[in-house]
């Protein structure tokens, strides 16, 4: 009795029926296209992925440069979209956004340019909104604990200490909390 070989008929293995091996350039293009299908990525993220898969650096550079030429990789656009999305979606401040972009390999000049679109007033307004949302869950806690919790939340999102304490103080004052003895963030 003959075993069923999966439909090949000639007993050939699956590997033998696959496409012929690709050149490193073809492999690099395929990897980049697959990675870019799911989400935009920076040039460095793609370069790291290619290196991890054993693509030679010169091949990687050539393919990535071509992708930049045709607009498939655009670190400036990536940085701008990242800042917009993460500031409005997660409430992250400039410092946290800069850290995230740098870890993704975005050049410092592009980071500064993207963050330049965020003005201080907009950043402070976002901090106020974050505190207003969290304020309700801190009711019933002692004042100092509320301050620590609210200011800590803003600090984790990258807001400067002075701004965080000022916004928290103002929010607590609007609820009728006495903040005279705190001595921080007075206007």
From TrEMBL:
Residues 74-115 form the RecX second three-helical domain. The keyword Cytoplasm applies. Residues 123-167 form the RecX third three-helical domain. Modulates RecA activity. PANTHER family: REGULATORY PROTEIN RECX FAMILY PROTEIN. Residues 1-27 are annotated as: Disordered. The keyword Metal-binding does not apply. This is Regulatory protein RecX. Pfam families: RecX_HTH1, RecX_HTH2, RecX_HTH3. Residues 1-11 have a biased composition (Gly residues). Belongs to the RecX family. Its main location: cytoplasm. Keywords: Cytoplasm.
